[in-house]
Amino acid sequence: MKKRFLLILTFPLLLSLTACWDSDEIEDLGIIMAVGLDYGEEETGRFSMTNQYVVPNNIPSTQAGGQQGSPFQNLTLSGDNFFEIIRKNSLESDRPPNYTHLKSMVVSENLIEHESINKIISFFLRDHEFRRTVPVFITKENVAKILNVEPTKEMFPAVQIKELTQNIDRSLNVQDNLNFGDLSKHLSDRSSFVIPEVSINQGRIHLEGAGIISNEDDKIAGWLTPDEVGGLKWIKNTVRGGLVTIDQEHTSEDQVVLEINKSHTTIEPVLKNGQLFIELSVHSSLRLGEDWNIERNVFKPGWDKEIKKESEEVVKEEIEHVISLAQEEYGLDFLEFSTWVRIKQPDYWKGHEKGWNKEFSKVPVKVNVNFTITGYGTQDIN
Hints:
Blueprint: H1 2-15, E1 30-39, E2 47-54, E3 72-79, H2 82-88, E4 97-98, E5 104-108, H3 109-114, H4 117-126, E6 136-139, H5 143-148, H6 157-163, H7 180-189, E7 193-201, E8 204-213, E9 220-224, H8 226-236, E10 243-246, E11 256-272, E12 275-291, H9 305-330, H10 337-344, H11 346-352, H12 356-360, E13 365-375
Parallel strand pairs: 1-4, 1-5, 5-6, 12-13
Antiparallel strand pairs: 1-2, 2-3, 7-8, 8-9, 10-11, 11-12
Helix pairs in contact: 8-9, 10-11
């Protein structure tokens, strides 16, 4: 009798727990995969915003006979603020934009030249639908054109742009992702930083170097080439793989290509008689990947002596070039030396924090590069 009573009592409760009572059909959602922000024309509005919508009916499936059309559609609107632009979507689409599945954001150089990036992203950082893991990119191109490029490997340009930075373990020229959370931290810390750059190359989306954002006005200060991105990665201890090429300028022999196995960089701020010095040391192990000197005898002791010396010189030059850019050309610590000074020399930092960019430009930096050649390809088996 007691069990029967419990069953009778439980049955109405089960009815009230029906699954997905507030769910929406995917066809009724305006799922946004990418957002592009640009400077608008005076007659149409201060800002331009491109939303990349998913078109669910055009997504190929195993049951459908084939793709009927493009799986995405871009809608570009202008206005005097981003909230106004988002609301304008309702005038052209019955599906309100939903940003919980956002894969990437692209901001134009033109926009950051007119407005500080702090102001540009403040709305998106505040909105609950914009996740802090979304990567941010910068471009010299028109943002709408970037998001209209047909992807070569992915279904959506938004995803292809995001995935461009995933090969950090294969190339020194690939800048790490900068997501909303990292961007917010840099702005809160009042530090200069870099944003990965995308462009259009032969009709395809292409990863370039990086844009430098100044902590003095939160605007674009300059650009790094892909090679300079490599130098920056050695400095910031973000090398996860890639190649070191000893070219004709650095060797009396033919070119040699070394593959990076692992790397570690240390930055040590040192005070001597009140003067700050920075010692930057790179330790890395590499293997011989490609050798155009076919006469080289890798079984002879000391075969790697010259290669080791030449490769260290190559990387030291790359690092010193980027340090020179930061100190002399831009006068901005986008190398993030300030982090190490704050941690290891807190008293010095307190006295120089406000004028750090000026102080940073005068700090001597000693660069040490020490490589270990650990192997020579398939010949290792002999």
